[in-house]
UniProtKB/TrEMBL annotation:
The keyword Transmembrane helix applies. It comes from Patiria miniata. InterPro entries: TMEM179-179B, TMEM179B. It is a multi-pass membrane protein. The keyword Phosphoprotein does not apply. It is found in: Membrane. It comes from the Eukaryota. This is MARVEL domain-containing protein. The chain crosses the membrane at residues 12-35, 69-88, 100-122, 169-192. Keywords: Membrane, Transmembrane, Transmembrane helix. Belongs to the TMEM179 family. Its main location: membrane.
Length: 213
C-alpha cells in the first residue's frame, strides 16, 4: 500500500513539473514573439529583406507570427486544465479512464506536433532573417547586426535576436516536454492502468484448496 502511494506521488510530481514547464515556456514564446513584432512592426519569421540603398522589408506572411503566438497561448490555457484533470484522475482513478483518456492523450500528441512546427518555424525564420540582414556585411554575427544596424523609431530591432533566440529555445523545450507528457500519459493510462483491474480481479479470486475425500 505504501509503495502504491509513493508511486502515485511520483506520478503527480512528474506531471505537475512538466505542466509548469510547458506553462512557462508557452508564456516565454508568446511574450518574446509578440514583443519583437510590436517593436519592429514586422514578422521577422517570414519577412523578405532587400538590400538597396537601405534595408527594405516586405512582411510576406504575417500569419506566421500569428500561428507562433496562437500555439503558446493555447498551451498556456490548456496546461492548468490538463493539470486539473490529472489531479481529478488521481483522486478518482475509476472515473479517469475510457474515452476521455484517449481524447486527452490524442490532444497531447496533436499539441506536441503543433509545437514541433512552431519550433521549426522560429528556428528557420530567425536563421533566414539573419542571413538576409547580412547582405551588407556577409558573415557578420546576427547579434552584431542586431546592435549595429541603424534602426529607426518605427523599425526598432535592437533586441530582435536575443528575444527570438529565447523564443526558439523555449519552443524546443516546450515541444520536448509536451512529447514527454504524451508518452507518459499513454504508458500510464492506456497500459499500466488497464493491467491493474486484471491484477485486482485475480487477487480477489479464492485460492483453490485440496480437500481430501
Amino acid at each position: 500500500m505504501a509503495d502504491r502511494s509513493l508511486l502515485a506521488l511520483v506520478k503527480i510530481a512528474v506531471e505537475v513539473i512538466t505542466l509548469v514547464v510547458t506553462l512557462c515556456t508557452g508564456i516565454a514564446v508568446a511574450t518574446t514573439v509578440g514583443v519583437t513584432r510590436a517593436k519592429i512592426h514586422l514578422c521577422i519569421l517570414s519577412v523578405d529583406v532587400s538590400c538597396n540603398s537601405n534595408y527594405d522589408f516586405n512582411d510576406a506572411a504575417p500569419s506566421t507570427c500569428n500561428y507562433c503566438l496562437a500555439i503558446p497561448i493555447i498551451s498556456v490555457v490548456l496546461s492548468p486544465v490538463i493539470a486539473a484533470y490529472r489531479f481529478f484522475v488521481y483522486l478518482k482513478p475509476n472515473r479517469g479512464t475510457g474515452v476521455i483518456t484517449i481524447v486527452i492523450v490524442g490532444g497531447l500528441a496533436l499539441l506536441s506536433i503543433l509545437w514541433l512546427v512552431t519550433a521549426a518555424i522560429v528556428s528557420a525564420g530567425l536563421a533566414s532573417f539573419c542571413n538576409q540582414l547580412g547582405c551588407y556585411q556577409p558573415g557578420a554575427d546576427c547579434r552584431y547586426l542586431q546592435n549595429n544596424i541603424g534602426w529607426n523609431d518605427y523599425y526598432d530591432g535592437k533586441s530582435f535576436y536575443d528575444m527570438t533566440k529565447t523564443a526558439e529555445a523555449a519552443a524546443w523545450v516546450s515541444f520536448l516536454f509536451w512529447t514527454g507528457l504524451t508518452v507518459w500519459c499513454f504508458v500510464w493510462d492506456l497500459i499500466i492502468r488497464r493491467r491493474s483491474p486484471r491484477q485486482s480481479s485475480q487477487a480477489g479470486k479464492p485460492t483453490p484448496v485440496d480437500v481430501p475425500i
